[in-house]
Amino acid sequence: MDSACAGAGSHDQIAAKEGMKTAKECTLWCIDNGSKLVLYSAEAKTFYGLDDQDKVRDYAGEKVTVVGTYDGPTKTIHIQSITVAP
Fold first, then answer.
1. What's this model's pTM, rounded to 2 decimal places?
2. Distance (Å, rounded) from C-alpha 14 to C-alpha 51?
3. Splitting the chain (86 residues) into consecutive groups of 10 residues, what average pLDDT does each group show?
4. Who contacts 85 (Cβ-Cβ below 8 Å, separation ≥6)?
5. In which domain, by residue range, is 26 found?
6. Strands 64-71, 76-84: parallel, antiparallel or unpaired by DSSP?
7. Structural domain total, the chain
């Protein structure tokens, strides 16, 4: 997800305003307009920064599994691998 939509907890508001139909379309629009890609946990209603924006761009708007190390003070995940979630 992107940081703008993660702060709201969904893509609904921005997607409706900009006429987008998918999470991927909204995420890409938001990052092209200054947002950062983040890992959003709907269960915890929180999000985590991702250190390698280029590595995760292809997964924008997808449910993914990320393996990496977590830096608590910066709330950032240092990505080792990322895959589409089953």
1. 0.85
2. 24
3. 92 90 93 94 92 93 93 96 91
4. 62, 63, 64, 65
5. 3-84
6. antiparallel
7. 1
